């Protein structure tokens, strides 16, 4: 629907035009004004797309009205009417960008064609405006992305030629430092960090004001922002803790901040500042601290512990003493971390070498094709992002290697190995398919074999283990129900409650209260006797 305003001081002509437009444009809203002044009053309240105005009027003629409207709103399409075919009027109308000039009396067909033509121009104009707005929006999105790309090249390439262009964004040729922020987002939107990162950049700028800063997304690290800060001293721990709290309120968790050393000329020393911050951030691998200063970690980054080596560990794996092997591996790994002072990359490489030695020693006991597949798992160790993940990956590999040793598919070996695996990994995301793969079975055959040997299905067996472990936690700890669920492999607390009630006829909370009451009664009886 369009709003069309008729402006004419001759009532007869105005009403006649009104009637024509009602017939021609039944879905449009038609308004009328007796002169230019009244027309301006209407336009103050009604957004009209088309104005059809007579040129000669007493209080304000059509040309003056057109000038007034053009000064306020260039999106209104103007059609001028006149009883005279005067060139001067037509020329002025064209100069003021009137879209049509009609002579009175107005012909119905000509008016219809003119209105349709004006509507096409309006549609075209709107499309052009929308396109321009879209281009402007894309440009706004593209410019930050371009700046991010330039800044990423700037910090990683000492010979980067376009660095002088960045001085206009931040006066980098003075003292300062670079710090990194790594954080996890709860949002499932893959672009959330990119969007929120810009907002966090503005927050950081405001946080450090009046000190100058510039934040950009780091492409070489997942969910990581880098910030240049021009200052004569490094920030203290309290300031960074406060910044971490602000970011956490934006919906982020597992926030780690790593700071380079202070540089005399941040422009010339930006690459070393970047490398120092990256090295410091690597220590977030241990997940026990969230703030790292390179000056406190630089000695540790060159620490090179001796290769992990333990004959007792090798023997435990060879004899398929999985529990003992796992405990020895954890002890060796923690010792090699040197109280979390060992650079994570070194620790991971030493772990890879440990398993290389293990496979070399046990090679004759493992089938060749299986041995080759095990050698390929070193990448899984290298790609771990935390100490706990490295520990878990290594313990998983111990189990796989132990069960690849000859005769591991005998019934006794299968029962022992499978039972031990489920009892030590019940808290992980386990499926019949994943366990079947560990023992090198087809899932369908594994399911049948499992039920024949254990007397119940795989899922029922796993459920029993998890519920038994949950009972222990409910009785012996104060953990919340959802924490107990997570600790026993249930990602959905409601499903855990249903499974628990199915076995015991009580919800976990009811079970805990009953056992607590029974304990109190037992203690009271004991006390009295």
Automatic annotation (TrEMBL):
Cite the SMART domains for this sequence. HTH_ARAC, REC
Q: Which UniProt keywords apply?
A: Cytoplasm, DNA-binding, Phosphoprotein, Transcription, Transcription regulation, Two-component regulatory system
Q: Which PROSITE patterns match?
A: HTH_ARAC_FAMILY_1 (PS00041), HTH_ARAC_FAMILY_2 (PS01124), RESPONSE_REGULATORY (PS50110)
Q: Which InterPro entries match?
A: CheY-like_superfamily, Homeodomain-like_sf, HptR, HTH_AraC, HTH_AraC-typ_CS, Sig_transdc_resp-reg_receiver, Tscrpt_reg_AraC-type_HTH
Q: Which residues belong to any copy of the HTH araC/xylS-type domain?
A: 416-514
Q: Does the keyword DNA-binding apply?
A: yes
- Residues that bear 4-aspartylphosphate: 54
Broad class of the protein's primary localization? cytoplasm
The UniProt record lists the keyword Ribosomal protein: no
- Biological-process GO terms, alphabetical: phosphorelay signal transduction system
Provide the Gene Ontology terms for cellular component.
Answer: cytoplasm
* GO molecular function terms noted in the UniProt entry: DNA-binding transcription factor activity; sequence-specific DNA binding
Stated name of the protein: Stage 0 sporulation protein A homolog
Query: What organism is this sequence from?
Result: Blautia liquoris
